[in-house]
TrEMBL record:
<dbReference type="GO" id="GO:0005975">
    <property type="term" value="P:carbohydrate metabolic process"/>
</dbReference>
<dbReference type="InterPro" id="IPR018225">
    <property type="entry name" value="Transaldolase_AS"/>
</dbReference>
<keyword id="KW-0704">Schiff base</keyword>
<keyword id="KW-0963">Cytoplasm</keyword>
<dbReference type="GO" id="GO:0016832">
    <property type="term" value="F:aldehyde-lyase activity"/>
</dbReference>
<dbReference type="InterPro" id="IPR033919">
    <property type="entry name" value="TSA/FSA_arc/bac"/>
</dbReference>
<dbReference type="InterPro" id="IPR001585">
    <property type="entry name" value="TAL/FSA"/>
</dbReference>
<dbReference type="InterPro" id="IPR013785">
    <property type="entry name" value="Aldolase_TIM"/>
</dbReference>
<dbReference type="GO" id="GO:0005737">
    <property type="term" value="C:cytoplasm"/>
</dbReference>
<protein>
    <submittedName>
        <fullName>Transaldolase</fullName>
    </submittedName>
</protein>
<dbReference type="Pfam" id="PF00923">
    <property type="entry name" value="TAL_FSA"/>
</dbReference>
């Protein structure tokens, strides 16, 4: 499962890249709005930092297929290869996806709440389909189950589309999908930081340090003991 950051603040992206095995960055219009700058300025900064080989996902705003296509072309032109155009799975979105796929564009089908949306996006040529796990949970359904079923639908129908699960609020949701082997998960910084925040680990490491310092002296390590 690819491990992707769902955020647009460059400082925080740099921090996460320094510590975690990150495969790329996803954004959406709400995430970009938090930066309060021109979207292309922000996105170009991210692209420069993550490099040409990493995935960068950028969403279109238009509601009609023609507008989505035009935005997709500018997104690709400005941000280069390995940029995935995020298209919401509406009727117009499916129309845009079919044409963009024929052009060879990288497409991430987004705003997915149902298995049927994902199936249609896969048939329309999307590389990724992004079910909103926690938002589905908040509707009283089971977001992890929906994401797993979408994964199965792709495999059983010989579609190359992968799940790019999004909208996580806790580690358990992420873990369940890693165990199932879905293609990718995009996760916000606060949820990423919670993935390994375990008091038991902190206590275990502190006990090791205390024992070692008892042996060799305060502040000593395997470097200078
Ligand atoms: O891009 C869609 C996804 O990232 C939404 O996440 O946390 O706003 O539900 P969230």
């Amino acid at each position: 499962m690819k491990f992707i950051v769902d955020f647009a603040n460059l400082d925080q992206i740099k921090e996460l890249y320094a510590y975690y095995p990150v495969d790329g960055v996803t954004t959406n219009p709400s995430i970009l709005a938090k930066e309060g700058k021109n979207p292309y300025e922000v996105l170009k900064g991210i692209r420069e930092f993550i490099g040409v080989n990493a995935e960068l996902h950028v969403q279109v705003i238009s509601l009609d297929a023609e507008g989505m296509m035009q935005e997709a072309h500018r997104i690709q032109k400005e941000l280069g290869a390995n940029t995935y155009v995020k298209v919401p799975v509406t009727k117009e979105g499916l129309k845009a996806m079919k044409t963009l796929a024929a052009e060879g564009a990288n497409i991430t089908a987004t705003a997915i709440y149902t298995q049927m949306q994902a199936y249609l996006a896969g048939k329309a040529g999307a590389h990724y389909a992004a079910p909103y796990v926690n938002r589905i949970d908040n509707l009283g359904a089971d977001g992890v189950k929906v994401a797993k079923e979408i994964h199965d639908i792709f495999k059983k129908n010989d579609l190359k589309t992968e799940v790019l699960a999004a909208s996580f609020k806790n580690s358990q949701q992420v873990l369940e999908l890693a165990k199932y082997g879905v293609g990718a998960a995009t996760i916000s910084p606060d949820v990423i930081e919670g993935l390994i925040k375990l008091d038991s680990v902190t206590c275990a490491v502190a006990a090791f340090t205390k024992d070692f310092e008892g042996l060799c002296g305060k502040g000593k390590s395997m470097l200078d003991c």
